[in-house]
Every structure is written in C-alpha cells, then in structure tokens.
Design goal:
The complex is a heterodimer of chains A (310) and B (75).
Chain A: E1 10-15, E2 19-21, E3 24-27, E4 34-44, E5 53-59, E6 65-69, E7 80-86, E8 278-280, E9 297-302, E10 305-309
Antiparallel strand pairs in A: 4-7, 5-6, 8-9, 9-10
Chain B: E1 2-6, E2 11-12, E3 17-23, E4 35-45
Classes of the chains: A mainly beta (310), B mainly beta (75).
Chain lengths: 310, 75
C-alpha cells in the first residue's frame, strides 16, 4: 500500500438517541475526518405553526455555514417528514423527491405528464402557478379543459390570491369570453347571481349589434327587474314591455309611493281593442277631476263620453 | 411524507458541525416546534488510513490540507 488510504468501508458516524428539538447537531470529535455519504432524520412539525424546510447544514470549525441542503418541498405546518440526504449523482426522480422533473428555459415536451402535490407549499397551496413575466399564462388544449374542485369548494377565476370571497376577473380589468360560438353561462342546480358589489358602476348587458337581449324564463318562472331604490328601464327609442297574455304593473308597498306612468309629454293608457279598465278597490284620483269615492270606482270611455261612476 | 434531497460531499473534520435544522422558507429563520428523531449520519471515515483501499498515489494524496477561507463582512 502506498499513498493516502481510506478505511475502505463506510462507518457509522452518529446515531441519535431519542428525540431533540431542532436543530439536532453533531460535532466532529478530535481526530475524525470524514466525508458524508448519507444522512436521514424524521422532522416532526406537529408543534410548528408554519411550513418549514427540512435542512441539513454544514458548519465550519468557527461556526460559519458551509452548505445547506434541503428538499424543494417544504414540510407543511403540523406535518411530519422522513427526509433522506444523499449525493444522488444521477439526480432525483419521482414526485416524492420534490426536487426534479420541472426544468426552466427548456421545452419539457415528451409523452404524458402528471403533476400531483401532496403537501401545502409556503404560499399556502398544494400547487401554485404564477407568471411574473407580464406575458400571461396560456392553457391550450385540443379537447376539454376542466377546472374542478372535487371537495365542493369554490372554483374561482381571477380571484385575488389569499382574499376571501368569490370573484371572477377581480385581478384583471376585463374578464372576456371570446369564442367563435355561443357563450353560455349555466347553473344547473342552485341558481345564479350576478352582483356588482362596487355599488357605483353597475352592470351592463350590451348587445353590440342589432341582436336582441332577452331576459326571461323558458317556463313559468318569475322575471324580476328591480333595485333597492329606483329602477330605470330606458331605451333610446321605443321601449316595449310585452307580457304575451297580460302585463301587470303593481306596487307591492301599499304606501305613499304608488305606481307612476310618467313622461316628458302626454301619458297614455291605451287599449287598441276591448275595454280599457282602471280598477282600484279604495277609489282613485285623477288630476283635474274630483276624487271618486266608493269602494269600486270605475272610469270608462263609452262612445267618446267619459263618465265617472262609483 | 417522504422527502429526498441531494447532499454535498464535503470532507469535514474536528469541530465541524452537521445540523438537522428546520428553516422558514421565506425568512430563512429557524422554525420552532419541530422535533428531530431517528437522525443517522453515515459516511466514510478518512481519518484512519492504511486499512483499506488505496485511493490516491503518493504524488497526489487524497486529503491535501487546504486552508479554509471564510469571508468576513460584505464585499
């Protein structure tokens, strides 16, 4: 034998007895020179309030940090991890490693691909995708795209991360549906609500061309147009409200507000056929005419003669 | 959960420290409340030459004493 030799066989350097609050440290004793081949430990974060990296750190004789290695996957708060450290000259493989497989500045093109997370990351998500380049994110498929929450929680688009509530397009200025075909928004179960919580801008449904805007139900549901204060139905030209078989104008609050038919010019109640009837159980008042008393006042047009009779 | 990490193969000697630590990924600060158990460190003992495989010639010894350089302050 000549030269410098090793012992030829790996040697156990240290085995921990019991458990120790992190950090657990091993200090090289006098006379020992060694090159580590592997290290392993269990990191129990049951008492940790935040996610953490399970690190193996090397310090010099004077306490300076020489190297710190750790799996890329943090251990979630309250979680426990069995961590193995080794040179892995061939690189890490498999999802459990949490340290390889996704490469940047290269085309990760090949066969099929699956990404599955089994722990919460430092940003509070199992999977977190973010584009900080300002160029956007594109998910393109030749078939269907699914965004599904199997737990029944909300599926949100454009919601500001980390904030509560439901939002579509909250991050973006405009949420656009740009398709070559029809856009259909359908809720098959529990109804649908579109709310403008801003309270100042309002909601606009605009047909940019001559196409009609239809608000209605296919069966016998109720179509309600109304607001907490004033409701305005306005058109640049004629506004037609067609009830099909009948049209009812009612005011549910039997108070002082009443029901108004008003215009800049004359206001008409016109029946092109049959009779025009105005019925009110407690009497009614016409401006310029005396109040008609009685429980069932009736005003009718009879051959050009207007008569008022209780 | 089972996690793997690559590890540097640094020759270490007297008073060097190997530490199992829990570090906050955002701040780099130690995280309290983590318990380490079952820690095992396994390696080649290079301090007892003459009993194993010849790893280097006389001209190129395996362990050449190298002066450790540690920066002080910022540059």
């Amino acid at each position: 034998m000549s030269g410098v030799e090793s012992t030829g066989s790996p040697t156990w350097l240290n085995t921990q007895n019991g458990e120790t609050p992190a950090p657990y440290q091993y200090t090289f004793p006098p006379g020992l020179i060694a090159q580590l081949l592997s290290a392993t430990a269990t990191y129990d974060g049951s008492g940790a309030s935040t996610p953490f990296l399970a690190c193996l750190s090397f310090y010099s004789q004077t306490g300076n940090l020489l190297s710190r290695v750790f799996p890329q996957t943090p251990v979630p708060s309250g979680g426990t991890a069995q961590v193995s450290f080794a040179p892995f000259p061939g690189g890490l493989a498999g999802g459990s490693s949490g340290g390889s497989g996704w490469q940047f500045n290269t085309d990760n093109e090949g066969g099929w691909g699956e990404v599955t997370s089994n722990a919460e990351g430092p940003k509070g998500y199992g999977l977190f995708f973010a584009d900080e380049s300002g160029t956007g994110v594109a998910i393109i498929t030749k078939n269907n795209v699914y965004l599904e929450s199997t737990s029944g929680d909300e599926v949100q688009i454009g919601r500001t991360a980390g904030t509560a509530g439901v939002g579509i397009g909250q991050l973006a200025n405009v949420l656009s549906f740009m398709l070559g075909k029809q856009v259909q928004i359908e809720c098959a179960a529990s109804g649908m609500t579109i709310t403008d919580s801003d309270g100042t801008v309002g909601i606009t449904i605009d047909s940019a061309n001559a196409g009609a805007i239809n608000v209605g139900t296919a069966t016998n549901g109720v179509v309600t147009v109304g607001g907490a204060s004033q409701t305005l139905i306005k058109g640049d030209q004629t506004v037609t409200i067609d009830g099909g078989t009948s049209f009812v104008v009612a005011q549910s609050n039997n108070g002082q507000d009443g029901v108004y038919i008003d215009g800049a010019g004359d206001a008409y109640l016109f029946a092109s056929s049959f009779n025009l009837q105005v019925n009110e159980t407690s009497g009614f008042t016409l401006n310029g005419l005396p109040t008609v008393a009685g429980p069932s006042g009736t005003l009718w047009n009879n051959a050009g003669v207007v008569s008022v009779a209780p | 959960m089972e996690l793997l990490s690559t590890m540097a193969q640094l020759p270490l000697d007297y008073q060097c420290v190997v530490a199992f630590e829990a570090i906050d990924p955002d701040t780099g600060a130690p995280v309290a409340g983590v318990i380490i158990s079952g820690a095992v460190i396994y390696g080649n003992d290079l301090s007892a030459p003459g009993t194993g495989t010849d790893l280097a010639s006389d001209a190129v010894p395996l362990l050449t004493p190298v002066e450790l350089n540690e920066q002080t302050g910022a540059v």
